[in-house]
UniProtKB/TrEMBL annotation:
Residues 1-19 have a biased composition (Basic and acidic residues). This is MarR family transcriptional regulator. Residues 1-21 are annotated as: Disordered.
């Protein structure tokens, strides 16, 4: 994470702020609102967390296509940052189910089954957010970061 980076909301990020899809928890939503295209990461309030937590939150917002760094907005007007490198939704749901089982074991079985039987891409973000909340509650933020990294891995 570059402390001097400036993040801007994409169109999707602006829609998220305006319409609250329910995909983001309160901290991620607050961070999204604070990213105004003028404020540097180093200028964010300390309540947003330490560098590790902040890097994870910024990475998640970026992966969701809600923000871009340092004026890359024009490049993000397509499918989203890194879209070509990200796996398709079906692969992401299977990765999520495997990772959920690896992190939570039997405690994640219910959500893992729902992920594996998911029939619609539109339901995936909500279900992934439920996974993140459960992982955070049971294993902490570091485990959530591992989960998110596994979703977009090679």
């Amino acid at each position: 994470m570059k402390r001097d980076a400036v993040y801007t909301k994409t169109e999707a990020g602006q829609r998220e702020v305006a319409h609250r899809s329910g995909t983001l928890d309160g901290r991620h939503r607050t961070l999204l609102i604070l990213l105004d295209g003028k404020r540097r990461v180093s200028e964010l309030p300390p309540q947003m967390g330490d560098d590790t937590a902040l890097a994870g939150m910024l990475g998640r917002l970026e992966a969701l296509g809600l923000i871009v760094a340092d004026g890359a907005l024009a490049a993000a007007s397509g499918p989203g940052p890194g879209a070509a490198a990200q796996p398709d939704w079906s692969e992401r749901r299977m990765r999520a189910a495997r990772m959920l089982n690896a992190i939570l074991g039997p405690a994640g079985d219910g959500l893992a089954v729902r992920l594996e039987s998911l029939g619609s891409e539109q339901q995936l973000p909500e279900l992934l957010e439920r996974c993140r909340r459960l992982i955070a509650d049971l294993r902490g933020e570091a485990a959530v970061e591992r989960f998110d990294a596994a979703l977009d891995g090679p």
